[in-house]
Prior knowledge:
alpha/beta; 2 domains; 9-stranded mixed β-sheet; 3-stranded antiparallel β-sheet; 12 strands
Amino acid sequence: MTATKKDPVLVVLQLTGGNDYMNTVIPHADPLYREKRPVVGVADDRIIKLNDRIGLHPEVGPLKRFWDSGDMAIIHGVGYANSPRSHFRSMDIWHTCEPDKLGTEGWLGRATRDMDPNKDNVITAVNFGPSLPRALALPGVPVACVDDLDNFGMLTSIQEEMQRDKIIDRFTRLYSPTIGSGFVMDYLGQTGLDGLKAADILKVAPEQYSSTIEYPDTPIARKLKGISQVHQANLGTRVFYTDHGSFDSHSNQIGMHDGLWRDVSAAVGSFFDDLRENDSSDDVILLMFSEFGRRVHDNGSGTDHGAAGLVFVMGDRVQGGEYGEFPSTRPEDLEQGDLVPGTDFRGVYSSILENWMGLDANSIVGGAFEKPAFV
């Protein structure tokens, strides 16, 4: 019997707010770490050592099993030149791949368009969250935004098929006149129709789902469980997006950063356990990124906005290990007190787009960039 080839799937987990790179993957052998982090530095006996140079924050420790099995790539010093150190602008750059001007098209919106040019599937891309991230935004490309999968859409609780059809027909007639009456109304009208279709398709996912894995009762775990449910329903979704935060640790960083990573680590672990239990993990990779890292020297209670950051990529098909070099912490090598990026984030995207998704990256990220070989 020939196994059916599965389409590769990308899950993106955005760590909103600027995750502290140096306290997530810690350069424990660097004496300047202790000097620069007198308040927020993680005690040496708490660091989960990966090798003689770096280790994980203790609350990231539950993910070490993925490192040990070769399923986790740590990509060092990711970013771009001349970081604005602004949440909004930096996230916009990551979302649109436009560091020199204000972008209007999301990189994953472009990728979704290239994967499904005829818009045959309104749920090729699904965002788990209340609003559409710019990374997925592209006029004409449908994206389903799901806040609660069990109650997604206005019609999911209507059981009588005839009643559902009648209401859908009324909504269709309400939206249809807007098509062709201007760009904005075209976009809103088509979005409404696509949303109705998405709600009807996605409602089957919880009904078909079965798993013995118990996810933690946290917002990020609920989002990842929803992603797992949709993926396991085999509805043709190729891109999933969600976020967690805020990682903006200007003050009280120790407890705050610990709690955020405790929730993320537990949720990601449950997510992959769930996929593997149901033979649904071999076509999935997970990308975790943040808009920037934090300043090298702490501020007495937390850390301020920085430049170079960290990317994790995880999955059964990922070539685990370190990619790139941990940026120098020596004062003369810093830029405005920040770690200097050595890996362009568009190269990370290019690896995923070309080596995993099978797309042409140049037109999506706006050029050719060196690709870390983690897939």
